[in-house]
Structure to design on (106 residues):
């Protein structure tokens, strides 16, 4: 596996990305932490879209278990958390698409 410096030296697209980030940091547009956070968030968004595009389906048993867990959590006075109905899935007819992971809890 190549080091980041080796990638920078040998891959023009990677070098362009690093230069863009360096420029943004230099102009005080973003901090290094914000650049890292944005990169992680971009990866999360990509995985969520990819999972939905692949047609991820949950078995009825899994759906029932998740619903039972939500009922238990709600009866204990806790806020709904990891498994919330997402806007993209809410209107789908497939019951396996009703729940998606909440990116904030990852």
């Amino acid at each position: 596996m190549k080091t980041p410096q080796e990638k920078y030296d040998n891959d023009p697209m990677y070098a362009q990305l690093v230069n863009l980030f360096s420029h943004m940091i230099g102009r005080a547009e973003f901090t290094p932490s914000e650049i890292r956070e944005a990169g992680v968030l971009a990866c999360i968004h990509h995985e969520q879209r990819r999972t939905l595009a692949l047609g991820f389906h949950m078995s009825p048993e899994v759906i029932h278990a998740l619903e039972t867990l939500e009922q238990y959590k709600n009866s204990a006075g806790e806020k709904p958390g990891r498994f919330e109905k997402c806007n993209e899935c809410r209107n789908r007819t497939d019951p396996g698409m009703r729940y998606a992971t909440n990116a904030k809890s990852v």
Remarks:
- Residues 60-105 form one domain.
- The chain has a mean pLDDT of 76.
